[in-house]
Write a structure and sequence with these properties.
mainly beta; 7-stranded mixed sheet
């Protein structure tokens, strides 16, 4: 479970998006043995052909059969909204993963689930992404809080490790991961 704050990036302007995506944040589970598999839920700041911004929730799953991405309209997909996102196995040993979200502390809504692979062990991860010029003072600046998970034995974990801070994003695009962290903020200047 992860709280994701939807941020407006309208100052970015047209031409800074990649495949229509300007910014976003996600929560996902990835197997500890790697292999590129993951199940993920999050939000995206997108632009249309005229450069107008709009927001979408999305789910993504990547397994040996390839990746599947779906987008959804929702009240959570708006600037300043906190999306509490969950990814969980449908049942012990299942290869079906359930996605759900809540807006600003409200009740949870389910999204279509994803089949794929069962993870014997998995790491909860958070990710934030912001596309645009590397010199932009708000190139990437998102905060993830309240990352929690229940393990296969039903034990609840809230201490996910130390705060991870990445100062200064090289290159044109940013796509860092925190794995794992209770709170994660990335900034182009300053300190955590």
């Amino acid at each position: 479970m992860q709280d994701l704050l939807v941020h407006e990036h309208t100052h970015v302007g047209s031409g800074c998006e990649t495949n229509g995506n300007v910014a976003g944040g996600t929560s996902h589970m990835s197997p500890q043995n790697g292999g590129g598999a993951l199940v993920e839920i999050g939000w995206r700041d997108k632009t249309d052909g005229s450069g107008n911004h709009y927001y979408r929730l999305f789910t993504e799953s990547c397994f040996t059969s390839g990746c599947n991405v779906n987008e959804y309209s929702s009240a959570c997909a708006s600037d300043g909204t906190t999306v509490t996102a969950t990814v969980r196995s449908s049942s012990p040993g299942s290869n079906v993963w359930d996605y759900s979200y809540a807006c600003n502390g409200g009740g949870f809504t389910n999204l279509p689930n994803s089949g794929g692979e069962s993870f014997s062990y998995a790491n909860p991860r958070v990710e934030t992404f912001r596309f645009g010029p590397a010199g932009d003072t708000d190139f990437i600046k998102d905060t993830h809080d309240s990352l929690t998970y229940w393990d296969k034995d039903g034990t609840f974990h809230t201490n996910m490790g130390d705060l991870v801070c990445d100062l200064g994003m090289p290159g044109v695009y940013g796509n860092p991961n925190a794995n794992p962290a209770t709170s994660w903020q990335t900034e182009t200047s300053g300190s955590c």
